[in-house]
């Protein structure tokens, strides 16, 4: 993504565009699925994901100016670069928005999520979120156990989750194993 100071809700593509593969995101610890958002209440694939990853808590969030008090301030807070001590799991049911994550060279990668996209950001990855110009998204938020909403704004190099993230995803050395 480009580093311009324009409206955060714009795509911010580099010129020329630089596309990032799902494999590259996986190397950063970002996990992605595409599901059917119209069937989320009875989706067997979603149930398998929740069961296998231990996501026991779920709620829904409608994020738009009409439904969120102090909308502009909330959006500003979400867009402040931060980490969490736990994974951040979001399933987009309606609308769209952007998750920005830092790559291994500390550059931003912009991930556009739309209805059906389920994304998991690992604990300790620097990231931020904003809506796009549609100004609407309905998200399912998933957690292991009780929800934890704590964001730790950058810098957080001494936070245990950040140290673990750096160890697991940015300091990989050796020969990669073939996937099976």
What does this molecule look like?
19% of the residues lie in helices and 30% in strands. The protein is α+β, with helices and mostly antiparallel strands. Strands 1, 2, 4, 5, 6, 7 and 8 form a seven-stranded antiparallel sheet that branches. A two-stranded antiparallel ribbon has the order 3-9.
> Oligomer, anyone?
single chain
Q: In terms of structural class, how would the helical and strand content be classed?
A: alpha+beta
Cα end-to-end separation: 32 Å
CATH C-level class is Mainly Beta
Q: What is the CATH homologous superfamily assignment?
A: Jelly Rolls
The portion of residues assigned to helices is 10-25%
Rounded average pLDDT:
92
CATH architecture: Sandwich
User: What does the overall shape look like?
Assistant: globular
Strand content: 25-35%
Number of strands: 9
Radius of gyration over C-alpha positions, nearest whole angstrom: 16 Å
The total of helices stands at: 4
CATH topology category name: Jelly Rolls
SSE blueprint and pairings:
Blueprint: H1 22-27, E1 31-34, H2 44-53, E2 57-63, H3 71-78, E3 82-83, E4 88-102, E5 108-114, E6 117-121, E7 127-131, E8 137-143, E9 152-153, H4 160-170
Antiparallel strand pairs: 1-6, 2-8, 3-9, 4-5, 4-6, 4-7, 4-8
Gist of the model:
By secondary structure, this protein is of the alpha+beta class.
Question: Which descriptors apply to this entry?
Answer:
globular; two-stranded antiparallel ribbon; 19% helix; Jelly Rolls; 180 residues; seven-stranded antiparallel sheet; alpha+beta; disordered C terminus; 4 helices; ARD
């Amino acid at each position: 993504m480009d580093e311009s100071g324009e409206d955060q809700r714009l795509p911010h593509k580099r010129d020329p565009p630089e596309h990032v593969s799902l494999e590259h995101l996986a190397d950063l610890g970002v996990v992605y699925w595409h599901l059917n958002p119209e069937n989320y209440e009875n989706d067997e694939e979603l149930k398998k994901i929740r069961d296998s990853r231990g996501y026991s808590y779920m709620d829904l969030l409608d994020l738009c100016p009409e439904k969120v008090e102090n909308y502009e301030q909330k959006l500003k807070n979400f867009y402040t670069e931060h980490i969490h001590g736990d994974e951040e799991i979001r399933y987009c049911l309606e609308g769209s928005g952007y998750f920005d994550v830092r790559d291994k060279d500390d550059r931003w990668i912009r991930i556009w999520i739309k209805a059906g996209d389920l994304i998991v950001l690992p604990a300790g990855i620097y990231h931020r979120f904003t809506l796009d110009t549609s100004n609407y998204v309905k998200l399912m938020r998933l957690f292991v156990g009780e929800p934890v909403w704590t964001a730790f704004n950058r810098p957080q190099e001494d936070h245990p989750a950040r140290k673990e993230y750096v160890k697991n995803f940015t300091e990989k050395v050796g020969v990669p194993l073939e996937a099976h």
